[in-house]
Design goal:
Structural class: alpha/beta
Strand order of the largest sheet: 5-4-1-2-3-6
CATH architecture: 2-Layer Sandwich
GO molecular function, one term: nucleic acid binding
Shape: globular
CATH class: Alpha Beta
Distance between the termini: 42 Å
Helix content: 25-40%
Number of helices: 6
InterPro entries: RNase_H-like_dom_plant, RNase_H-like_EbsB-rel, RNaseH-like_sf, RNaseH_domain, RNaseH_sf
Radius of gyration: 17 Å
Protein name: RNase H type-1 domain-containing protein
Pfam family, one: RVT_3
Order of helices and strands: HEEEHEHHEHEH
Organism: Sesamum latifolium
Number of domains: 1
CATH superfamily: Ribonuclease H-like superfamily/Ribonuclease H
Strand content: 15-25%
Length: about 200
C-alpha cells in the first residue's frame, strides 16, 4: 500500500464507514429560523440494517422490557423481537438491555453495517462516548460495544419518539416473555408501511 491508497479488501469497509459518517453529520441541518425539518424514518443504504429499539419498565417494577424492529434498505421489516427480563432497573437499564438485544438480533442478519437508533438520549450519548461509563449501566454498555465491534460499520444515533413509533408500540403492547420473528405482526406491519409511505 502506497500513500493513502487502500488495499482492495479494505475498500468496502472504508466506503461503509464514510457513508455512515456522512449521514451522521448531516442529520441536524438547519434550513432557517423557525423552520423544522419533519422527522421521519429513513431507509438505510444497501447491505446496512437499521434497527430501532425501545426499553420499558413494568408497573410492579420487577420486570424490564426490550422491543426491537430491524429494517433493510427497502424499508421492509426483516426481524423483530419483544422480550421481558426478570430484573430490577430503571428506564435507562431497560433501554440498554434493548440496545444489546439489537446487536444479538442483527448479528443473525449477516449485514456488514448497522445503524442503531433509540429515543433515550442519555444512553445514546454513553454509547457514543469513548470513555467507559461508571454507572450501573456501564457493564451493559461494554457488552454492547464488544458485540457491535463485529460489524464493519456501526452507528449509535438518537431519534425522537415520533421516529421510533414501531419499537415504542412493541414496548407498550408486548405481553409474553419472548416473541419475535421475520415478519412483523399485522398491527406492527401497518406502522412499518406508514413509516415507508411518509418518506
Amino acid at each position: 500500500m502506497q500513500g493513502n491508497c487502500l488495499d482492495p479488501p479494505h475498500v468496502p469497509c472504508f466506503i461503509a464507514q464514510f457513508v455512515n459518517s456522512f449521514h451522521s453529520q448531516n442529520l441536524g441541518i438547519s434550513i432557517g429560523v423557525g423552520t423544522e425539518i419533519p422527522l421521519r424514518w429513513k431507509v438505510p443504504w444497501p447491505d446496512c440494517i437499521k434497527v430501532n429499539f425501545d426499553g420499558t419498565t413494568f408497573p410492579k417494577g420487577l420486570e424490564l422490557g426490550a422491543r426491537v424492529v430491524a429494517r433493510d434498505a427497502s424499508g421492509a421489516c426483516v426481524a423483530w423481537l419483544s422480550r421481558r427480563f426478570n430484573m430490577l432497573g430503571d428506564v435507562e437499564i431497560a433501554e440498554a438491555m434493548a440496545a444489546r438485544e439489537v446487536i444479538h438480533l442483527s448479528l443473525q442478519r449477516g449485514r456488514s453495517s448497522i445503524i442503531i437508533k433509540g429515543d433515550c438520549a442519555t444512553l445514546i450519548h454513553k454509547l457514543q462516548a469513548s470513555e467507559q461509563d461508571l454507572s450501573v449501566v456501564g457493564p451493559v454498555i461494554i457488552s454492547i460495544w464488544e458485540l457491535a465491534s463485529c460489524f464493519c460499520s456501526r452507528s449509535f444515533q438518537f431519534v425522537k419518539q415520533s421516529c421510533n413509533v414501531v419499537a415504542h408500540y412493541l414496548a407498550q403492547v408486548a405481553r409474553s416473555s419472548a416473541e419475535g420473528g421475520h415478519d412483523a405482526p399485522p398491527a406492527v406491519a401497518s406502522l412499518v408501511n406508514a413509516d415507508i409511505s411518509r418518506e
